[in-house]
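Handover notes (outgoing to incoming on-call)

Open items:
1. Non-homologous end joining protein Ku: sequence verified, structure written out, both below. Nothing else pending on this one.
2. Nothing else urgent.
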Amino acid sequence: MHTVWKGSISFGLVNIPIKLHSATENKDIKLRQLHKECHAPISYKKVCEGCEQEVKEEDIVKAYEYAKNKFVVLEAEELERLKKENEDKAVEIIDFVKLEEIDPIYFERSYFLSPDTTGGKAYSLLRETLKESGKIGVAKIIIRSKEQLAVVRVYEDTLVMETIHFPDEVRSTADVPNIPSEETVVQKELDTALMLVDQLTTAFDPAKYTDEYRTALMELIEEKKASNNTVSVSDKQPLPDNVTDLMSALQASLDKTSKKKPATRKKKVAKTS
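Non-homologous end joining protein Ku structure tokens:
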């Protein structure tokens, strides 16, 4: 399993060397875009809006747009220095809270925590402490230059760190349009709805839920492959017109020069008696 972060996590005076691994993966089927006429893949280029020229990676700088078309340019060195100043590889658990106190809207991404070579005993201690207390730990961590709020909890027999949004990253419900005000609900309708909920209530089993669209899409793809309904694109890219024209011009010039060049005559050497 790929390690995405390496450091340590601590609570009180207990320090645990750990590695972070992505706990989930996106299984969306990625579809490429092809040109309808020749079925060649479509590529995207970074083009400057000002001079309309393609820009190389080394010619790009980052900036913050503080007003329409007004930017503050941030140099790569400045961003790197700021990152190093705030990138502490030791993550401290700040508080312990109950899981049910955190609304699911705050949760973002899950990571498995594994102990480094010397962290097994401390890892087990934190795991059992969380199990016995029924609490989860709240901590801060910097991942990919972004400070994250996170919680540490037990999942099956493994510690899991889940990044969560800061409060100002969760939008206000007051901004959601067309929310109906409180209205009197007909009791008969409510009773019927509650009866339906009771009939559909069951223990949660994640294995029973599948991505039906992804399954159907893969079946369609396999059917097309089996019926040889596929297209192939050559890896060889044709030379741009200007290069082709240049080669033709050079060859024509060479041919023309060869025709004009006079044949070399051998000089006769006078014989001496």
